[in-house]
Design a protein that fits this description.
- The chain is 46% helix and 19% strand.
- Strand 15 and strand 16 form a beta hairpin.
- Helix 6 runs antiparallel to helix 7.
- The chain starts with a helix and ends with a helix.
């Protein structure tokens, strides 16, 4: 049996759980965890443990079992949460992440097992030994006995009932979710499995949720179960029976010895009325007659806030009045539960299928564009109208398809919270990370490849950019350094900014390093862009010493390569003693773009439409002096002839030239071409290995007539033009 897809789902689900776990733990450094926080962390570890056990991943199961025990004690308040536990649990999360990913590939090395053992060893001082817990329980019982002796009224009777009427077996409250059948799970089979570790003393089926026949859905589960179960097994063994269904159910297990107060607590969590549950528990043998009276008395005490001094007869009379439950509250709980069950589900689809769909839609767009071109030459208005309608529908399908692969960048930003925290401790700096634009969406393929560049830039900001706390105080700055990650849409692109409020970049030092490396000569230019480009050369570093974080001149060159491989650009702005800002500009998607088709000679080129501002007629008279500048409404902008940069086959026709005004960020330039062929939706095809490093070209596309068109990389072309112009001017 091929388990590849199932294991892949396990990896994805575990990664989501571990990311959530890390985010919660990082919050605990500033404030104590809430009940929901502790439950969420416990649920994450418990679910990973259960799934790992299904696959037989023993190392993961053994490690999570100990972590789970600690978390269980924390959430049940047997032990207090201490600040030191944050670091320990973060280390446990990191090790668990390693186990989850590596154990699917094979056996875990002994050296890694020892690392896990050391983490588990560090947890022991924070756990109260079982013997101490037993001693605390005995002391509590002694206190209760003394209290019973000191009081002789009806309150005394109530406490005596609570003490004597403990549960002799396990009480299992089992409420499967409505959609449990659609998950391939049968609740009855789990109940049947209980017989292998004990005896079902009695069972009551809850049928209150079954609707009328006209509303009944045969694929939904409307039943609940209250089970009186007797077994010599411990609580973990009983709970393990329900491991695989626990996420799709409400499950609560009270162990033998539980008090009446525990039953009241449970009754307030269940959707049924508390009075109904009390009588039901008496029916299945959980409560005796005397225990039921104690349960009602405790319930009324909770509802009214005062002690009940009535006799047994009066108590039974008032169960239908004084003990009446707030039905509105009950309806709200049931309503919330129904909403949770009916909310829309997320469907997980293999990313390869989405990629394949987008590729096919792209091919369809190109074919449809070719068809429209052919139809436009025919004098058939009905056919042309039908063709245009088809194209509109296809464009909608294209937009929907592309959105399937769009994901918010917030999840990527979130992981740098941990990076900044750990680096701050390592470097002895106080650093705060602020993220903005978390909801900005980007192609998933781009997000996946963006992780390494952002990591390098964040690490550089922590090490190079920010000063120590003492130095910042001397400069009159806040003690805590600030790093900001921001994302937003601009002109059909996504812009990501990495900003710090640190030292800034010393231009003189960068230029001097460039001279030492033989990269540049002569005096420092006025253009900051020319200076900061040196930062991206391999081996160039301005760090005064090599650290574990940086200083070897490796990192920013990799950042530039990765950004350019995504058809993006990166620029740097810096102000001394105020900080630096790295700006990354990326396309929204790598699959399909709206382009502007132009022709030079017999060759076709595509310019990304979001960079095109306008098109104008171009003549030699438009030249200003000997330099390559074009006058545009009182301003001079540089221009280039596309035919000068790319070998083209000359056309036999005499055509007039046109200039396409394009922009890259806040810069404008002109591209001189021969023919303007209009907008063209195109599927981007990667260049072959021979042409992969050609500057100025980001890909290619096959036109409807079979010809190949090159997609112009405008940012790279800008840079190349500036370099050539500088060389010409300063020779």
């Amino acid at each position: 049996m091929d388990l590849t897809e199932v294991i892949d789902a396990y990896l994805v689900e575990s990664d989501e759980f571990l990311r959530d776990m890390e985010a919660i733990l990082l919050r605990t450094e500033k404030s104590s965890p809430t009940e929901d926080d502790l439950n969420a962390i416990f649920r994450a570890v418990h679910t990973i443990k259960g799934t790992a056990g299904m696959f037989g991943f023993e190392s993961t199961v053994k490690f999570t079992h100990v972590v789970e025990n600690l978390l269980d004690r924390l959430r049940s308040h047997e032990i207090p949460f201490q600040q030191e536990l944050t670091e320990i649990l973060l280390n446990a999360k990191d090790h668990l992440s390693y186990l989850v990913n590596e154990e699917t590939k094979g056996k875990i090395p002994e050296s890694k097992i020892l690392i896990g053992d050391s983490i588990l060893e560090s947890m022991k001082p924070f756990q109260i030994p079982d013997s101490e817990i037993s001693l605390q329980k005995e002391n509590q019982e002694d206190i209760e006995k003394e209290s019973l002796v000191a009081n002789s009224d009806s309150t005394n009777l109530s406490k005596k009932n609570s003490k004597n009427n403990t549960i002799s077996g396990y009480l299992i409250s089992f409420r499967p979710n409505r959609n449990v059948f659609s998950q391939g799970l049968d609740p009855i089979s789990f109940i049947g499995y209980l017989k292998k570790i004990g005896t079902i003393h009695s069972l009551k089926t809850i049928t209150e949720e079954i609707p009328l026949s006209n509303e009944f859905d045969a694929e939904s589960c409307y039943l609940g179960f209250e089970i009186n179960f007797h077994s010599d097994s411990d609580l973990n063994a009983v709970r393990k029976v329900f491991n695989f269904i626990e996420n799709d159910t409400f499950l609560h297990i009270l162990p033998p010895g539980s008090q009446l107060e525990d039953l009241v607590d449970l009754s307030m969590q269940l959707p049924e009325e508390e009075i109904l549950l009390g009588n039901l528990w008496k029916e299945i043998g959980i409560l005796t007659e005397e225990g039921l009276l104690g349960y009602f008395e405790e319930l009324k005490s909770r509802k009214t806030g005062i002690s009940n001094k009535q006799t047994e007869e009066t108590l039974l009379i008032t169960t239908n009045s004084d003990l009446s439950i707030d039905t509105n509250e009950l309806k709200n709980r049931v309503s919330d539960s129904t909403k949770e069950q009916n909310k829309s589900a997320t469907i997980k689809v293999d990313s390869k299928r989405i990629d394949n769909l987008i590729n096919r839609v792209g091919e369809l767009v190109v074919s449809c564009a070719n068809m429209n071109q052919l139809i436009s030459s025919l004098e058939d208005s009905i056919l042309q109208e039908s063709s245009m309608h088809t194209m509109r529908l296809l464009n909608e399908v294209r937009e929907i398809s592309l959105k399937l692969r769009m994901v918010p960048i917030g999840d990527t930003f979130q992981k740098y919270t941990r990076t900044v925290r750990d680096l701050g401790k390592e470097l002895g700096k106080e650093i705060k990370l602020v993220t903005e634009g978390n909801e900005t969406e980007l192609d998933r393929n781009i997000v996946d490849k963006l992780g390494d560049p952002l990591t390098h830039l964040v690490r550089n900001a922590c090490d190079h950019g920010l000063e120590t706390s003492e130095e910042r105080i001397r400069k009159g700055k806040p003690k805590q350094g600030l790093i900001k990650l921001n994302a937003f849409h601009e002109a059909g692109s996504v812009v990501i900014e990495i900003t710090d409020d640190g030292n800034g970049i010393q231009k003189e030092k960068v230029w001097q390093k460039g001279i030492e490396k033989g990269l540049v000569l002569g005096p420092m230019p006025e253009s900051e862009d020319e200076i900061f480009k040196l930062l991206f050369h391999p081996g160039l570093s301005t760090a005064s010493k090599v650290t574990n974080v940086s200083g070897r001149g490796v990192g920013l060159d990799v950042v530039l390569q990765n950004i350019e491989s995504l058809r993006g650009t990166i620029t740097v702005k810096s102000t001394p003693n105020q900080g630096s800002r790295f700006t990354i500009r990326l396309p929204l998607t790598l699959a399909i773009i709206d382009g502007f088709l132009v022709e030079v000679g017999k060759n076709h080129f595509i310019i990304p439409m979001d960079m095109v501002l306008e098109c104008l007629h171009f003549t030699e008279d438009n030249k200003s002096g000997a330099n390559q500048f074009f006058p545009l409404r009182g301003n001079l902008i540089p221009f280039l002839r596309l035919g000068d940069y790319y070998p083209t086959e000359a056309s036999e026709d005499n055509t007039r030239e046109n200039i396409v005004i394009v922009r890259n960020g806040d810069k404008k330039a002109g591209i001189v071409v021969e023919r303007l062929l209009g907008e063209y939706q195109t599927v981007i095809k990667p260049m072959g290995s021979v042409f992969r490093h050609v500057k100025g070209v980001s890909g290619s596309s096959i036109l409807g007539d079979g010809n190949v068109a090159l997609i112009i990389d405008i940012p790279s072309l800008f840079e190349r033009t500036i370099t050539v112009e500088n060389e010409r001017l300063y020779k």
